[in-house]
Amino acid sequence: MSVKKSQQDILLWIQNWYYQYCNGDWEHNENINIRTIDNPGWRVTIDLEGTNCENRVFRNIEKEESQDNWYQCFLRDGKFEGAGGPCNLFEILCVFQEWAKS
User: Domain total for the chain?
Assistant: First the structure.
């Protein structure tokens, strides 16, 4: 199976983003959660407490092209939340990356 370079990059980036906050305490919580939903699709929750993103402003994003090609990203209760169609996990993670790096 071949993974596009950009997909590898986002996985390495999120892995490193997580690791930079591991301090013996922070990592004991469920800080990054990626799960499936029954639409079908994906749900991504990233706890921002204790990170450089904790107090940043985020503008909600919604994209809907079809029943299977959609995503929305927003902040709620100190967490980045993203949900999307079955092939939109990559876009959700890219939205988080772009925002977190800005």
Answer: 1
